[in-house]
Amino acid sequence: MAYVSSAPVMDDFVRDNTVGGLGRGAGIEWAEQVGNLGDTAVVKGRAAAVLVSANGSSAMVKSLTLNNDVEVAATVLNPSTSVNSDFSLFLCVEGATNAARTGYELRLDGFGPYKMAIYKYTAGTAAQLATANMTFDPASGDRLVFVRRGIGLYGYLVRGPRGAEQIVTTTDAAYTSGSVGLGVAGVARLTDFRFGDATPDPLAPTTSLLDTFVRADETPIGGNWVSPAYTPNPTDYLYLVSNTLRARGNSFQRCCSIWDRDVFGYNQEAWATIGNVNLVNGLTVGFAMRVNGTGASRRWQSNRFSLTTPGNTMTSGTGFGGSEVFSTNSTFRTNNSPTPVVAPAVGDQFCCRMLGTTAYMLWRPILEGEWKILWTDRTTTRDYEESANGGYNRFFPDGLNYKIGMTMEMPSAAIPSVDIGISQFGGGTIPDKGVQLHYPALG
Questions:
Q1: Of 108, 349, 394, 395, which has the maximum CB count within 10 A?
Q2: Peptide bond connecting 232 to the previous residue in cis, omega within 30 degrees of 0
């Protein structure tokens, strides 16, 4: 899925070079907003550029007010890390001049290593809302995309066959309507400018709902679930109470149950919805992915997130699970994820997605309505298996069918747990192509 794939190109800039503005595109007219040193955005070489390469400028679409969730995109040309090369897109813009501008800007900053940032304008003054360092450099032909859904603001780069990669996200509710536009600085150029209603969230799970837990209590959970007895204490398990899946066990013991009815492919996802929240001490919740084998030979790739208070912080990680592994030689790497804007709440959703050797942890706060990437891991499980077990494909070869499951780790000796409950569980096989996920180095 590509962003604004159904929206027409509003300006491809295929016209003579200009010296006094961008002029008209296909059905739109540009209103110039003079930039640095009195410079203006112009058409140069069939692209939007700045008249003098040492400067920067921007232009907004004239007589346009968009009130719905919206996205704007343009194709990047001439990126550079050695000279100034900035690309910008604007949403919810009001004001006829730079000094009067309000709205949001997504900026791909190319002076030095690339980074992507979101800015908020108030009476012409920009304040940075979020930034992310990039682990790769954009190339000519990549598409820069800026999306607003609800109070969520999201920056993406569509990298040819790699698909859309989410780079930076934040939230802000100050502006809900206005025009769209673009900006360039230095040697940067943009073409194929387009905008339209926001497309469906490309990070949302596409697999089926498997269990709503709406039935009589089960201790431990039964039906289509099996519970491997791999923890040191056999009384630790997941159970069903008040239509939510919860953990019952001793302090810091991992409880696990496997969805046993179906098998899925090598590339798979699992997702869950929070149905009860009482984060007194926090709780680690995760997914067992690519589950194979039975009894003592059962293995899975474990991907989890931890919710802790105070501060509503999250930690995500990935590791290698199984009846023999967690208690003896398990390996697990964690990473501090961005602190959520809001506390975890009933209706929030989490997802683990396995594509090849990469694991992705995603979160959808119900108050924001957009999926965002918490963390990715491309090396831990693979490296562990190669060094400890004689090869990556020993336990998780491609081409086989695998199951999925849920894991929880108790924060305290509370029996039963009242900290968190899961009200929905879903998952299945996902394609190995389409939207790719990316989150750069956090910082």
A1: 108
A2: no
